[in-house]
UniProtKB/TrEMBL annotation:
Signal peptide feature range: 1-25
This protein's name: Extracellular calcium-sensing receptor-like
Membrane topology listed for this record: Multi-pass membrane protein
Organism whose genome encodes this protein: Erpetoichthys calabaricus
Keywords: Cell membrane, G-protein coupled receptor, Glycoprotein, Membrane, Receptor, Signal, Transducer, Transmembrane, Transmembrane helix
The keyword Membrane is assigned to this record: yes
Subcellular compartments: Cell membrane
Stored Pfam families: 7tm_3, ANF_receptor, NCD3G
An example molecular function term from Gene Ontology annotations: G protein-coupled receptor activity
Amino acid sequence: MKCILYTSVLLSVVLLITAPQNPKCKPLGQYIFNELYKGGDIMLGGVFAVHFKTIAPELSFKSKPEQWKCESLDIAVFQRSQVFLFAIEEINKDQTLLPNITLGYRLYDNCMNLQVSLRAASTLIAGVDDTMTDSHCNGLPPVVAVVGEPVSTHSIAIMLSYEMLYFLQISYCASCPCLSNKLEFPSFFRTVPNDDFQVKAMAELVKYFGWTWVGVIGSNDDYGLYAIASFTQEVNKFGCIAFSETVNINEKKTVLQVVSVIKQSTAKIVVVFLLKMEVMELIKEIVHQNITGRQWIASEAWSSFAALASNEKFDYFGGTLGIAARRGELSGLEEFLFQIQPQPDPHNSLLPLFWEVMFGCNAEKIRDMRTEFSDVSQLRASYNVYKAVYAVAHALHDLMSCERGNGPFENNTCADITSFQPWQLLYYLRKVNFTNHLGERVTFDENGDALPAFDIVNWQRTADGTVVSKTVGVFDQLTMTYHQLSLQKDHIFWNFDSRTIPESVCSKRCQPGTRKATRKGEPVCCFDCIPCAEGTFSNQTDSSECDMCPLDSWSNPKRTVCLLKEIEFLSYEDAMGLTLTLIAFFGACSSVSVIVIFLVFRNTPVVKANNAELSFLLLFSLTLCFLCSLCFIGEPSNLTCMFRHVVFGISFVLCISCILVKTIVVIMAFKATVPGNNVTKWFGISRQRGTVFFFTFIQALICLTWLMTAPPTPAKNTKYHHAKIILECNLGSVLGFSCLFGYIGLLACVSFLLAFLARRLPDNFNEAKFITFSMLIFCAVWIAFIPAYISSPGKHTVAVEIFAILSSSFGLLIAIFAPKCYVILIQPEYNTKKKMHFQKMIIYFLVVIFWQE
């Protein structure tokens, strides 16, 4: 439909320009506009949506159709039209700007209707009604530029229709970024930043307060659709769009549908890209359905109209935040507005219409009325109108000031101020750069756009009940490089019971110790917070993953930080470690005590009969066995790890070697009692000593080889406890440890077998029975040690090993030496050659022990 309309208008213009010259023009019909007019040397055009509703005529196709009827006059927009007049009057009084040139104006009301806008544009361009058949008729002088259109869609249609004529248009409200395309719209300018900057400002505002769940509403036209798409793209960088809806003011059901979506959505923040009249319909329905608890974010198109939230509507829309054009204070404007009087002039038909809305048909004084019209404290869109008029005036002044011979056009010519072409004025308009009397720089960028700067406004109620747009911040992309948004948060009114910044999130932020898990089929802003697993942590809010703790650390119960793992080893401070230490010292002291006893009673038959030298060596090795257990207590180090196994291995081999040799001696002694058997010469004292050290030397070689190839080293074991580090000694070489342990076992088994075979030797040679019993204890302890060692975690592993060392050592000490000490100390009468009968001694010893217990 729009394409057909654009084509028809374009053909009309072409016919208007190319029609043959006739001495007389006959209008085919004339469109009656609501207008304001004043003649001048150079005429400026203006298009304002003073009325925002139209009634379409009924088409019978039997008679000439009536024109569209306008209704619902917008007082605030009428004020803008008066600012247009005020700026022209101010320029005409200025002797330094356009001297000797009087600016005139022709201002049309487009009634927010595209068809009316196109008719107004064609009339302003041609100087006559667009239905005339001859372009050279004697009509009104054409305008050199038009301040307007306020609506992007209308501006696009007009610029596309009259592109070939370089129709100059300077809009004060049309903000669609598409109009920045100079290939399509070379003669379009505006004093409002385009929507790219507005959208970015609104997205930054949403981001500033941490709102990640936002609804967006826009008008169903170029302005609204582009704004929704751009805003969605910006918000998706840090949040999510809860809903996206469009409003068509001509369709009531779309408003109802949008309000229903707002009511059902969990989003508390609603961003609105609508024009004023569209917002009025939305506000009416929001109030009707009693929807509160929403924070509204207003676009530049309606953020300045705080009166929309007056009276009972403040409960619903009070506290609205918005992006607004920079405010200006125009000296003398208020007095200019108060001088307005209705005139019975068909070329100024807007004045009676305004007066009728304000006072009916009464001749009242406008000075006595306080309305949006007389309120000059919030001049934003009106200030843009003011800057647009001055921009054209400065372009005209620069054109008029051209020095002949130094002009910018062909052959260095200048344009004539009385007969220039639109494209010549376009050249100067692109280069406009001046500072107005408010101190603001006015210029256009390469796309014809204004400098990107906005005020952040907040709808607040004053003491007298008036709702105003209070400036609470700025968004300046030109001068503020890093922090483009600056807010005074303490000055913002929040229309909530708590009077605090509202929250609008699909899911609350995941606290440290949790991670985000997106819900299937929902936006990324909707997620669940999953606690981090053991051994992982997150120390930031909204972590997407939980990080693994280092090997030496473990997460705390809240999973917010990794703590160094508890270091565990068998220490002397532990109750277990202290107990084992005391037992080890007790065992060592017991061995030393036996040595002392044997030294004191070394000349008695019991000591002499038990091979004193081997007995002392055995007791010494047992002392080492008790003391070597201390090497297993304390924090492992390279030295202690090597030392503990070497001392353990050599001490026990020395001990078992002594027992083995002692057993062999017993057997040899029995053999020596047989007449004619001379075995003592083959196993004398020196050979006994040599055998012990030979067996011990083999163990020393095993230990040395082990230490040189793969020695034991300290290691951190986290296998048993995730939250603990068990310090232990890594064997280094399992083969080395197996050889060391196996060699001890081999000697123990040989000793046990020999002692077992010699257990039935007669009388005095029953020493073999004690050895058999001691080796039985030794083997039983170490056989039981293996499964206990494997199944004991942490420091208990070391405790089991120490227990095995101490148990086997005590077994050897008690089984071999306790009966002898008992005879020496308790029953000395048996410590004679006559009474040396070991079998009877053992029986007596056991009976006495049993009786004492």
